[in-house]
Amino acid sequence: MTTEFETEIVKTKEFNKIFMIVFLILYAISGFYIFMYEKESQNLYLKYLALAIYLSGIYFLFGRSFLKPKKIGKLKISTERIEFNLDHKNKNISLNELENVYLKYMDYGSWKTHSIFGNKNFLRITEKSEKKYDFEILIKNKDSKNDLKRILNNPNFMENLIL
Q1: Which residues pair with 133 in a beta bridge?
Q2: Which pTM was predicted?
Q3: What percent of the chain has pLDDT over 70?
């Protein structure tokens, strides 16, 4: 019986760290100005500016879950081989050509983690020829998580798996 797991290889947009730090400071200041500062002495224009910063901060905190990661390829893992299509190039690797497989599992998609489209999970495949492939993959739901788990717990795969 051949079990298969198919998913997308994606690239998630990362925000500039300096931008995020500056925005976090502005977000904290705007929250203080709107909610903690004395209402009678607030400047109307500063209040609206602080409100705009605060609302855009809510978008960055919660709206990021709605941004779909950019799809850059497809990955199919079976009990016999690993196939992927990346940059319009197909690659098939049979299990006996694998040096190891490293999976950094971070859960499937949910509100508390990365995205409603699936979560950042990282897969590193190393061939015996020392060629390495690093992928960010999506595990979209519990069924796809169980399919991947079933394949990775297969005895053929267990000898090549590093957790």
Answers
A1: 125
A2: 0.67
A3: 83
Half-sphere exposure of 160 (CA within 13 A, CB side): 25
User: What's the angle, vertex CA 28, arms to CA 25 and CA 33, rounded to 5?
Assistant: 125
The CA-atom distances, in angstroms, between 24 and each of 9, 19, 44, 54, 98 are 30, 8, 22, 10, 44
If 0-12 CB within 10 Å is exposed, 13-18 middle and 19+ buried, where does residue 9 land? buried
pLDDT of residue 40: 83
Asked if 109 and 139 touch (Cβ cutoff 8 Å), the reply is yes
**CA-CA distance, 47 to 42, in Å (whole number)?**
7
Tokens of 133: 């492939």
41 secondary structure, DSSP code:
G
In whole numbers, what is the pLDDT of the chain averaged over residues?
Answer: 80
Tokens of 105: 């599992």
